[in-house]
Amino acid sequence: MEKLGFYGATLIGIGAIVGGGIFVLGGVAISTAGPAAMIAFLLNGLLALLTARSYAFISDIFPESGGTYLYTKRILSVRAAFVIGWMLWLAHIVASLLYALGFSAYFLSMLGQVVPNLEQFAPMRVLTILFSALACAFYTYLASRKLQSGGKISNISKLILFFGLIGVGFVLILSGNVEEPTSHLAPFFEGGFSGLIAAMGYTFIALQGFELIASSAGEIDSPRKIVPRAMYTSLGMALIIYIPILLITVMGGIPTGASPAEWCSSRADTCIADAFKHFLGTTGYWVIALSAVAATLSALQANLIASAKMAKVMADDRTLPAILSSLHEKFSTPDTALIVNFVIVLILLLALPDATAAGSAASLTFLICFSFTHILASIIARRQEGSPARWVVPIIGAVLCLSLAAFQLSVEQSGAVLLTGWVLVGALFYYIFLSKRAETLDAFVAAHSPTLFSYRGNYQTVLVPMKNPEHVNALLQTALTIGPESYSKIILLSIAERSEERSVLNENIKQASDVISNALTLSSLQEKRKLQGIVSIHESVSGGITEVAKTHGCETLLIGLQGEKTRLALEGYHTLFKSLSKTNIVLLKTPQGWEPDSVAKVLVPIGGKGEHDKLRARVLGRLISFGIKNITFLRIIPESATESSLARIGRGLSQRVADETKGYGTSLILQSRNIEETILENAGPDTLMILGIETENTEPQQNEESFATRLARKHTGASLLLRNKT
Questions:
Q1: pTM score > 0.85 for this model?
Q2: What whole-number distance in Å separates Cα of residue 691 and Cα of residue 701?
Q3: Is the bond preceding residue 187 a cis peptide, omega within 30 degrees?
Q4: Angle 138-143-145 from CA coordinates, rounded to 5°
């Protein structure tokens, strides 16, 4: 696909910003603030430019498509990304509703010019809902066929029309065709300071759209250079159009002697068209009304598409149900996401009373999301240790966005109720249905692309207790697999057991020191890792490991097991496992002389519970990054299994492979009476077997050996036994 240049990127912003907002919310701004509505738009423009600065800074680091959702996932976590993505999804849906209502208002106004007394056919509220729903349905259908909003010609035509109207308006005002044009400018702050700030809150959405340029960074040529310029240009163009339109409306469009705020409050939705009718006549009205219909429909289409793209991106990451990422077989459009969006718009259409409430809800949601963008810019600037201005300015932007959002809450509660309910429902939905799969996939992505650990500012610490010098290399190489390269610290630990006899204690310390010294000498990881050796004196090995793990905040504990002694070793560690419930535990069982380079295949037997998915995905991500691609997820089912259960299990296993290896692995389902024997038949000496340890089976009961332990003990190759932290 051909990349967009500066011209194409700027048109994305112009197409998303210019047009619909001023037609739908210009009257709302004047009715709230009076002539100072121009100042409200100007201040919103400055705040938007400040926000664009943060977007430009982050997009320079992450020149990829995804916007704030992607940035949050890169810099913080997939959980935080869900919250932002969930709110942005709502913001674009409510923006769609706003422009659908704006279209309906202008369309019914035009229809009223032709068919008087429309309300004799149906109440105006019913007609508004009907035409809004029809517009949403039509553009949902169009988007399902081609996921693209207005093109270059329509955007350029829109700019020509606006500048033409502005030119004609000023010519008429300056030529004396408008009586006392300056009389309506006083009192300028008709709504007072509170009215000015309220107007900013209601209309901030009118300048939303510039962030779609950053969200499309992956489609732009030289995004680091073009994205900032395109955002600033499109915002500047919007202000150059919006403020003169408002000035002409106040100076020339309001009847002599009328209060701008009062006159606009009675016709807030169609104020701009009615104002131009006052001094341009019927022709002027129809030009503005038709332009408003075209502009609101264009904005409706853009936001429906943006919301569907947001849903698909989240579904790809499993932060929304995977079905929303499905594409139409013929048109390759996210048709399921579009349909879900349409249903939500219909529900909100019945819930929100008018365009003012919709505009307030959309502005509030975008303000909160934009404040988060500022915070992310500040975080990443602090981590890069740049000049204070690089992180202080975004903080100022965040404070301004949140302050405006807080004030808006005091004047329009419907948006707060909607957003609060949406976030609560989303949080519940995420933790019950989505968190496991989303965080498993994220663990794989982070391990496969370890720079993510750097962006998130967290280095992984792997604790490796050492006793047998012959096992050092295998443990170190496995630690390299567990911890991301250059973003992890490996602590080599040797325990010297305490003794009352001084000579015995000294000998124990010497042996422990020799083990660490030997390990550090053998290691070739000094250039890639932060490697530290510790000799600890303790009453017991288990107690010493626990103490060091907690003191150093170790995220993962790697323990080596020796062949036939696997079961005995596990039995000795059950107390340790209990005391380190917040630590990932990896047990490495290897045959004599095993080297990681000998692994030709990875076998992952699956029992269906999935308690260790995240840790396993992390390990698999690292293995794949090292070039090991032969990974098989194996599920053994009874020979009596029906075709329907076989199909269901197959779908579940395929989903797990997709989540834990992002499609690199393969799935295999076998029917057998003897599960253990079948697994071992599929695991040769060059196979690394990855197994999960059930928490309840960690401590042996009545001399019963767990299935995973027995399987690892009998396997002739190496085995990794995983226990995910709780």
A1: yes
A2: 20
A3: yes
A4: 100
